[in-house]
């Protein structure tokens, strides 16, 4: 059972390494989906928001890692 | 639409991503083979392949039951998570903040660990288990990459071909050198793969939400270019904040 638990834990870590990064990505995607589906935001603008949002999350995650080291 | 752009992108991303994973699995299997013997190494590897084949056989057909837009959305989200994780790590390594992965060190650590357990009566079992876990975990990443990259536009055969080519190339090099493949520019490959998977992920999530990307599949290259520019800027930023005498953190 320990072996299976260990394997499951490692499989989860394929997608979630920095929890903040993962949570922010999921929230961003959910927000864009909501805006497109329910708030009738033009889909292309939603796509642009998705790309910009991912860039913002990447900047934030890297900057936090650097600040943590200092 | 299976355009040349899509085909080339899928093959390249699948090959490079699988290459990195197979190299990591090879390091562990080599350590097991040299330290404990090739029987537990091959048994562990064989059982891992069987487990992976079973997973694909069970879960693979379920994909055809899911509407394409939903599949693109889910797979795209997972690709964004996977790709952003690799990209973040590659940026921090390229910037000198985090230590580069060292296949020689990983090999040495694994052989030491196995050597310490050599007198254990379960030594063969533990060695085989190490090989099984390594091949299963890295193999699961390869299967995910093949399905994720290939399922959006029914290109799983091409993505599979890329993965198989990577496996054969690593196997050929490994058999020739009998050493961990430490000369492979692993962080550069992970950087490139992180960019590609994130670009694919953003593209698929968009398609799943009904975005009609300008230029259709060519937009993957556009997204890739934007991510590349931004990430190179981030690498410069990390380098500028890393003290010259500072040791990279693990």
Description of the molecule:
The complex is a heterodimer of chains A (70) and B (250). Chain A is mainly alpha-helical and 70 residues long. Helix content of chain A is 81%, strand content 0%. In chain A, helix 2 (19-37) runs antiparallel to helix 3 (43-69). Chain A starts with a helix and ends with a helix. Chain B is mainly alpha-helical and 250 residues long. The radius of gyration of chain B is 20 Å and the shape is globular. The relative contact order of chain B is 0.22. The model of chain B has no long low-confidence stretch (mean pLDDT 83). Chains A and B meet through helix 1, helix 2 and helix 3 of A and helix 3, helix 5, helix 7 and helix 8 of B.
The number of helical segments of chain A is 3
Q: Overall pLDDT of chain B, averaged? A: 83
Query: How confident is the prediction overall: mean pLDDT of chain A?
Result: 85
Let me know the number of strands of chain A: 0
SSE order of chain A: HHH
Sheet of most strands of chain A: none
Q: How far from one another are the termini of chain B?
A: 43 Å
């Amino acid at each position: 059972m320990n072996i299976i638990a260990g394997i499951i834990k490692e499989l989860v870590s394929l997608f979630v390494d920095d929890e903040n990064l993962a949570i922010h990505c999921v929230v961003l995607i959910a927000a864009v989906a909501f805006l497109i589906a329910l708030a009738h935001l033009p889909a292309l603008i939603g796509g642009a928001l998705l790309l910009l949002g991912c860039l913002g999350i990447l900047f934030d995650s890297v900057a936090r890692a650097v600040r943590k080291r200092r | 639409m299976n355009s040349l752009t899509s085909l080339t992108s899928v093959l390249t991303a699948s090959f490079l991503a699988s290459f990195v994973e197979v190299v990591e699995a090879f390091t562990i299997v080599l350590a097991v083979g040299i330290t404990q013997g090739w029987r537990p190494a091959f048994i562990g590897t064989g059982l891992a392949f069987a487990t992976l084949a079973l997973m694909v056989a069970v879960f693979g057909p379920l994909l055809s039951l899911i509407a394409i837009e939903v599949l693109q959305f889910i797979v795209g989200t997972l690709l964004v998570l996977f790709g952003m994780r690799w990209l973040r790590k590659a940026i921090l390594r390229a910037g000198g903040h985090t230590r580069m992965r060292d296949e020689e060190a990983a090999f040495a650590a694994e052989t030491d660990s196995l050597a310490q357990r050599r007198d254990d009566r379960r030594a063969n079992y533990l060695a085989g288990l190490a090989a099984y876990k390594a091949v299963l975990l890295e193999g699961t990443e390869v299967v995910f990459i093949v399905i994720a990259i290939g399922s959006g536009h029914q290109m799983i055969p091409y993505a599979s071909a890329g993965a198989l080519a990577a496996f054969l190339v690593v196997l050929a090099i490994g058999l020739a050198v009998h050493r961990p493949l430490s000369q492979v520019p692993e962080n550069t490959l992970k950087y490139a793969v992180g960019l590609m998977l994130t670009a694919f992920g953003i593209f698929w999530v968009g398609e799943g939400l009904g975005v009609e990307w300008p230029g259709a599949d060519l937009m993957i290259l556009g997204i890739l270019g934007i991510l590349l520019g931004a990430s190179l800027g981030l690498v410069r930023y990390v380098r500028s904040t890393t003290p010259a005498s500072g040791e990279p953190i693990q």
